[in-house]
Amino acid sequence: MTFRDKLDQAIDRHQSLLCVGLDPDPAKIPASLAKEANPVLTFNREIIAATADQACAFKPNFAFFGSLGPAGWPTLEQTLAAIPAHVPVILDAKVGDIGNTAEHYARMFLDRLGADALTVNPYMGRDAVLPFLARQDRGVFLLCLTSNPGAADFETEVLAGGGERLYERVARQAAAWNTHGNCGLVVGATRPEAMAELRQLAGDMPFLIPGVGAQGGDLRAAVEGGRDRAGRGAIVNVSRGVMYAGQGADFADAARRAAEAMRQEINQYRG
Amino acid sequence: MTFRDKLDQAIDRHQSLLCVGLDPDPAKIPASLAKEANPVLTFNREIIAATADQACAFKPNFAFFGSLGPAGWPTLEQTLAAIPAHVPVILDAKVGDIGNTAEHYARMFLDRLGADALTVNPYMGRDAVLPFLARQDRGVFLLCLTSNPGAADFETEVLAGGGERLYERVARQAAAWNTHGNCGLVVGATRPEAMAELRQLAGDMPFLIPGVGAQGGDLRAAVEGGRDRAGRGAIVNVSRGVMYAGQGADFADAARRAAEAMRQEINQYRG
Predict the structure, then answer these.
(1) How many A×B Cβ pairs under 8 Å?
(2) Strand order across the A234-238 sheet
(3) Mean pLDDT calculated for residue range B34-38
(4) From the CA of B53, how many Å to the nearest CA of chain A?
(5) CB A104 to CB B70 under 8 A?
(6) Which residue of A has its CA nearest to B177?
(7) Nearest to A125 among B63, B101, B152 (CB)
(8) Per-residue pLDDT for A172 more than 80?
(9) Backbone torsions φ then ψ of A244, nearest 5 degrees
């Protein structure tokens, strides 16, 4: 089964476009878990169990596992093992390197860790991207227009000869590279005016949409502009807003309530 | 001591602008090491011991450790421990993510692994870069003009209003962000015409120069164009050309000879 089929099936089964981001910061984990052997792992497992049927995907961010040091790899492996098999994993590592090295990142994240999809940085161009797209059963989300303030430094620069912006060029190039139908784009919710325009450029490619919640993006505009013709394709990622919805011993219930509320709000705008 | 001081001291002590890249691929490791408990680690240690006094830095690429799976972290840690304390480590992971996440990459690569410098992807702009530059004793090499064919997809695009190219904008922005004097640039040897021009834009920022050897760049043009006013600043990285110089049981001698020859050739062009 391809990543896209797995994603669409999870969307339909859970009636959800919500992706739950897993950014486990040891400094933010509820005090009730302090005595666990591996508080981060227990926290992740509880968040996953509480939210899996509200989500169409989980997105672990590699940095939050890497910063655990030697415990990072086994904690990530066991976190992934806790995700139900029918819910796809988008591993967020924003990799980008020459072809020979990209192949090693593919082995790391797709083979060793078994991720269904990976985020990839387009700066270095095609040989940094194509080794991942060549894995036809896996997905790639190429950074396009991100949700952070620094997106204004380079991503939105206007290119000479036609007025296209860098992120638009990335989207157009991604559409051209997408010969296996497994490419998506990262498009922040913080620039709703760009969302519908990118949907035009990108056909039915799925969008991974960060920037709602802590970063202040407009959910309605993001979903209405980003959804594809089937009312899917606008995958809204929420990390802190779900994981850290509660700090008490009932943190998992709080996460579930936050995920459910977000899922329902998104569904209002799916059309 | 800052990264720049440590780098300059290693350059002077070893009379070398050669950075030895550590890209240990299990499929390419000499057969004579097959029976070692950890062939990759033994290989790395032998390469390091044979080349350390020929080098001004080592550059391990994280992908080649990550692709080892659970063995990756301890192998990388022990590889780093084998590098003499006076030779700086440039960890090549090409990270780039929002500020909150960048801080976790800083913990991973700079605190946990103790790297002296890190490669960073500029696509997401300032909040993906500044958390690393804020570590004043550590170095950052920002991807600018890379040595791979895909550099022609986005990096060399001309921006509207003045004819500046994207990689030139990155260099100019990096110079503006470099308030602590700890920023450098990755500039491929494959575009010698750009090297001297970037040196003008970048003042005395160090350049990390990939693309000689396997990728076919012009060494003389790279060093003559990239060196700074003190005849330093053009750090030429060679990975495969040193590590895999020999495949026999004498692979370490072969690596040393390759490193020494490269060091001497670079020095001819330092002026």
Answers:
(1) 191
(2) A57-60, A18-22, A234-238, A207-209, A183-187, A139-145, A117-120, A90-95
(3) 95
(4) 27
(5) no
(6) A153
(7) B152
(8) yes
(9) -110, 30
Residue A59 designated active-site: no
Q: What is the ipTM of this complex?
A: 0.97
**Mean pLDDT in chain B?**
96
Tokens describing residue A148 = 């952070």
pLDDT single digits (tens) B50-69: 999 999 999 999 999 999 99
Q: Does B107 touch chain A (CB under 8 A)?
A: yes
Q: Which residues of A111-138 are buried (b: 16+ CB within 10 A; e: fewer)?
A: ebbebbbbbbbbbbbbbbbebbbebeeb
* CB-closest option in B105, B150, B160 to A63: B105
- State how far residue B62 is from chain A, nearest Cα, in angstroms: 9
**Helix, strand or coil for residue A231?**
coil
What residue segments make up the domains of chain A, in order of their start?
3-268
The tens digit of pLDDT for each residue in A83-117 reads 999 999 999 999 999 999 999 999 999 999 999 99
Q: Rounded to whole angstroms, how far apart are CA atoms B193 and B196?
A: 7
The whole-number average pLDDT for the span A177-201 is: 94
User: B77 and chain A: CB distance < 8 Å anywhere?
Assistant: yes
Torsion-angle region of A164 (φ positive above 0: left; ψ -120 to 50: alpha; else: beta):
beta
Contact assessment for residue B102 and residue B131, using Cβ atoms and an 8 Å cutoff: yes
Tokens of B120: 């960073």
Per the CB < 8 A criterion, the answer to whether B57 and B235 are in contact is yes
How large is the average pLDDT for residues B66-79?
98
Task: Name the amino acid, one letter, at B46.
Answer: E
The verdict on domain A3-268 having CATH code 3.30.2170.10 is no
